[in-house]
Design brief:
The protein is of the alpha/beta class. The protein has a domain of 43 residues. The strands form 8 sheets. Strands 13-14-12-15-16-11-19 form a 7-stranded parallel sheet, sandwiched between helices. Helix 24 packs across helix 25 and helix 27 runs antiparallel to helix 28. It starts with a helix and ends with a helix.
Length: 956
């Protein structure tokens, strides 16, 4: 070029460089892929290669020049203005920073304000994506950053490490709390890595009112994203395949971007010997567009196509085989299509895989994770199978299948799991966690809900939480008074009350008026609400009642949609059924709205209320969702996931609201506690429990070892040699044990054994994912029980009750019970307990008269309509001690056996005295901890009294 253009060469190159920077590629595209000048590509930077095998690559990487310019005068229109810092790569500006000192009265807040009010986005260095890619506001304590200056609408994000699971930064031994920014983030290799493989342009195209809207966002990693991805990559490089990782990152943490960055890095990861660590990276996710997002992001990094393959129900098996054979670096699958994928993978031995699981709690505990591991590890166990077969004299083909079942439940040397979730369950922690200082499993990396809330990435959904308690009285309208089981009748009556037309009508009126008065004007008049119902029938009823009241009251500014799966048969009208599209009629076209269209249509201005039944309670991202009306039992992870639908942020949204008709505030608080900071485990499941259960089960002599061995031999026989009669043998070998089970006369003994075998099955499925048991007897019993339990006769559950024709609604009212915020304390860990060896079978509940059951419900849910406070425990004790049945049981059994008879009788004694003692009786029936304490105390006293009196009588 110098020969051609002479002394003008430099000017020509700079002109073409500026044109490229000002074009669609921008500075990021120019730095990564260069620019054209007279047909020649000139590279503006060279980034670190994935491996170090090429010395020329290392030389080019070292030639990069990173510079810091102090007090950069950036404006031709206002030459007196200057930036505190500008960071450049090979002369191209990539970042700016404003530094503030609290000792002079200025903080990071002033730095942000300076960018928003005193920095013109039209100046070249600030123009979006064309020069500087990110702008930092810094003081000694905090850092904020933004990738787009937009005047007073500029949105700054925190770029802090977090302090004790909250916002901010911890003290630094080196001085300033923010020293990590220049010592770690801006360090030469780190900064080049961020420019090369983190920053990317996110492009979203949406149809809004018939127009296609394109939005571009420059994504710069938040600190926790940068930290987690780098730590995961470094550990995988050092440890190789065979390690599990749990990443507990709150909603609003940006998991989609984290997964994209991690996938890209793992796909090209090499160890210190320049050997590739993983042959393929498999992403298991239900995010429907993640595969395209990954491909688009990776194309920005490398300009490579065909890096990502998506496997779904429409993928042809030949295409899948081709992708796997040629070693496609990244394969995206759904959980439903994963078995189809791994069947092909198992045919490719000696492969190493990284499996990235999105929202691990929903799919990766118990049997499903076992299936993932089992097929991926299939080629690793053949030799071990032969050795054990020789030692034990077993048929190798049968034993190999057994060992495969055992091996897939332990950690595999060729398989690494990376599990992302905001709400890990106990099992997820045990399977994917790493040992903490006390030896208990903890997440490999944590970004807590508390930090996400304090940093403003999500809203606190408990801040404005209100419960309504439902009070009702029922009267018996039928002439007869059937004798019913208390517990089952209670459930049936509760269902009747919640489905009663008057009940739903009153709740809908409360919801509708609250929405119009309080919610509708939020978020600039765009706020929406969700109604969470307990069943599909409830969802139908709510939809009907909402639409009826809206029409009756002339509320033309509110329209509803309903979401439920399948077809709902109307329980009251024969041959009448409902579907989701059939109930969602477009208010303009009067045509049904399809299920796939619903999320997008709900985001439009035409619709304000979404009524759901077990849909859109997890993973649904609608920032305009402000209010939730809950009429469903929520507990544990489900409560957190459901209420978290409200926590997404958007412009103009600064709060949320929950109106709960079903749950108590303390119940919701308990559900959120474990996930507010770091999830830990409490009481741990012990491997010794399995051996104890094994002995108890075998000692019963209901299941015989010989039958277990024969079933397993048939089950583990390879498919090609498996005969048609093998399936029938699986049942033949369980027939004798099922017969012996049925022959047990004592119902309590029968149900206790049922509880033990179910406890063994569940505990082994869980523990064997953590501990690679070498005892094949445990695996064989587990395999046998999977068939045996299915064949057990169902426990006697008693009659089914329907009170719609027998009970009329007498009284119904709503009373506001509690209103305000649920406050979660920081600095406290709330452990999750694991499964234990305890297993319980079904027990038939005591029968009581329906009228007494109605009294019980009136007392449990009503205000003090018939108050009574004359209950004395000694009356209960004396009456129990005089009972011939209890006296016989106490004299003939130890107290551990006496409890089965006494506990049932005690509940009846309380219920019998309900009218005279409603306050304490209600507490006894409602408060489990209170009930247990009273029962234990009275049981001991009655038992001792009966036996003491018997001794006196015998001595007399």
């Amino acid at each position: 070029m110098e020969k051609l253009h002479g002394p003008e060469t430099g000017t020509i190159v700079l002109d073409d460089l500026c044109k490229a920077l000002d074009g669609a590629a921008g500075s990021l595209g120019v730095l990564r892929h260069g620019f054209k000048c007279f047909g020649k590509r000139i590279y503006a930077a060279f980034f670190a290669p994935a491996h170090g095998m090429n010395p020329e690559n290392a030389r080019l990487y070292a030639a990069n020049r990173l510079t810091v310019t102090r007090q950069l005068h950036y404006s031709q229109r206002e030459p007196g203005k200057s930036l505190d810092l500008a960071l450049s790569l090979n002369g191209i500006p990539v970042a700016t920073a404003e530094l503030k000192n609290p000792l002079t009265g200025q903080t990071v807040v002033h730095a942000r304000r300076q960018y928003m009010t005193d920095r013109d986005p039209r100046d070249k260095i600030f123009q979006f994506k064309q020069r500087a890619l990110v702008h930092f506001a810094v003081d000694p304590d905090q850092v904020s950053m933004t990738t787009r200056l937009n005047g007073k609408s500029t949105r700054f994000l925190p770029f802090n490490q977090g302090d004790h699971h909250g916002a901010g930064n911890p003290p630094s031994a080196r001085g300033y709390r923010t020293s990590y920014l220049w010592e770690e983030v801006w360090q030469r290799d780190s900064w080049l890595d961020i420019l090369a493989r983190f920053i990317h342009l996110e492009v979203v195209e949406k149809q809004v009112e018939g127009k296609k809207i394109r939005t571009e966002t420059m994504i710069f990693p938040r600190y926790h994203q940068l930290d987690s991805v780098r730590k995961l990559e470094a550990h995988a490089r050092a440890a190789g395949a065979g390690t599990n990782y749990l990443i507990q990152h709150s909603a609003g943490s940006g998991k989609s971007n984290e997964i994209g960055w991690l996938v890209h890095r793992l796909a090209s990861l090499h160890d210190d010997q320049d050997q590739k660590v993983f042959d393929s990276v498999i992403v298991v996710t239900d995010r429907t567009v993640l595969d395209q997002q990954l491909q688009d992001t990776i194309y920005q990094f490398e300009h490579k196509q065909g890096v990502v393959a998506k496997i779904d129900a429409t993928t042809k098996s030949t295409q899948l085989a081709e992708e796997l054979t040629r070693g496609t670096p990244i394969i995206v699958v759904t959980l439903q299509t994963f078995p189809f994928v791994v069947e092909k993978i198992s045919q490719l031995p000696e492969r190493r895989y990284a499996v990235i699981v999105d929202e691990a709690h929903s799919s990766q505990s118990g049997e499903t994770a076992s299936e993932l591991k089992g097929v991926l590890a299939a080629g690793q166990i053949r030799e071990k199978a032969r050795r054990e077969a020789e030692e034990q004299g077993l048929a190798a083909e049968h034993e190999e299948m057994l060992l495969r079942e055992m091996a897939k439940r332990g950690r595999q040397p060729n398989l690494s799991f990376f599990a992302f979730t905001a709400t890990p369950k106990y099992k997820t922690l045990e399977v994917f966690g790493v040992p903490g200082p006390d030896g208990k499993p903890v997440p490999f990396h944590l970004y807590s809900m508390r930090q996400a809330i304090e940093e403003g990435f999500i809203l606190d959904v408990l801040k404005h939480y209100t419960t309504y308690k439902t009070y009702f009285q029922l009267i018996k309208s039928a002439e007869d008074d059937p004798r019913v089981e208390k517990r089952k009748a209670a459930r049936a009556l509760a269902r009747f009350t919640s489905l009663h037309p008057h009940n739903i009508a009153q709740k809908v009126e409360v919801m509708l008026e609250h929405f119009r008065t309080h919610t509708r004007h939020k978020i600039g008049g765009k706020a929406k609400a969700m109604v969470v119902t307990s069943s599909r029938v409830h969802a139908v009823r709510y939809k009907q009642e909402f639409d009826r009241q809206i029409k009756e009251k002339g509320y033309n500014d509110i329209h509803t949609l309903v979401a439920f799966s399948g077809t709902v048969e109307d329980p009251d009208v024969k041959d009448l059924s409902y579907t989701e599209p059939g109930m969602n009629i477009d208010i303009v076209t009067q045509k049904p709205i399809g299920e796939k269209q619903l999320p997008e249509r709900f985001g439009e201005a035409d619709y304000q209320v979404l009524i759901v039944a077990d849909k859109y309670q997890t993973g649904f991202d609608q920032p305009l969702l402000h209010t939730m009306y809950v009429d469903k039992r929520l507990a544990g992870v489900q409560a957190v996931q459901t209420l978290s639908r409200l926590n997404r942020t958007c412009a103009g949204k600064d709060d949320t609201f929950v109106l709960d008709f079903y749950n108590e505030a303390n119940e919701i608080e308990e559900a959120f506690k474990p996930y507010y900071e770091r999830t830990t485990v409490g009481r741990q499941a012990e491997p010794a429990q399995l051996n104890d259960l094994f002995d108890k089960i075998m000692d019963r002599q209901i299941i015989w070892r010989e039958e277990v061995e024969r079933l397993c031999e048939a089950f583990y026989r390879n498919k090609p040699s498996r005969g048609k009669d093998d399936h029938s043998r699986l049942y033949v070998y369980t027939d004798p044990a099922v017969g012996r089970f049925k022959a047990i006369q004592d119902e309590e003994v029968r149900e206790e054994f049922r509880g033990q075998v179910m406890a063994f099955r569940n505990l082994y499925a869980f523990l064997s994912q953590i501990i690679p048991f070498a005892d094949s007897d445990l695996e064989k019993l587990y395999t046998y029980l999977r068939f045996f339990i299915r064949r057990l006769p169902r426990p006697e559950r008693g009659p089914t009750y329907d009170f719609d024709d027998e009970v009329a609604l007498k009284f119904y009212k709503l009373q506001k019970q509690s209103e305000g915020a649920i406050a979660l304390d920081g600095g406290i860990e709330y452990p999750l307990d694991g499964p234990t060896e305890v297993g319980t079978g079904q027990q038939r509940g005591p029968e009581i008269e329906l009228s007494k059951l109605i009294d019980l419900l009136n007392e449990r849910f009503g205000t003090q309509f018939t108050p009574a406070d004359q209950l004395f425990f000694d009356q209960i004790r004396e009456h129990a001690a005089e009972s011939p049945e209890l006296r016989q049981a106490a004299l003939a059994n130890p107290i551990d056996a006496f409890k089965f008879v006494f506990d049932k009788a005690l509940q009846g004694l309380f219920i019998d005295r309900m009218e005279q003692n409603d306050a304490i009786t209600t507490k006894f029936l409602n408060d489990e901890s209170f009930s247990q304490a009273v029962t234990t105390k009275l049981r001991e006293e009655v038992y001792e009294q009966i036996r003491a009196e018997a001794e006196v009588d015998s001595s007399a």
